[in-house]
Amino acid sequence: MPHLSLSIRKLIGTLFLLTFLFFYSMLIMTIAVSGHVPENGVVQFFFYLIAGTIWALPFRWVFIWMLRPDPE
What we know:
The chain is mostly helical. The chain has one domain. Helix content is about 75%, strand content about 0%. Helix 1 (about 5-35) runs antiparallel to helix 3 (about 55-65). It is elongated and about 55 Å long. The chain starts with 5 loop residues before the first helix and ends in a 5-residue tail after the last helix.
């Protein structure tokens, strides 16, 4: 399998990230307005705090893949 250059990996990773974040944000907004999150301000705060940061955990590996140096 041919190696992808750094610029191609960045392009693929960026497109994947933007696509994923669009659908992830739609899912989170749907959950929030559908009545599954109580009207309590503290609960809403923690829901948005967790939902706003949890997407970054699996993307750690995408960022590592995107930014690794090109082989010589």
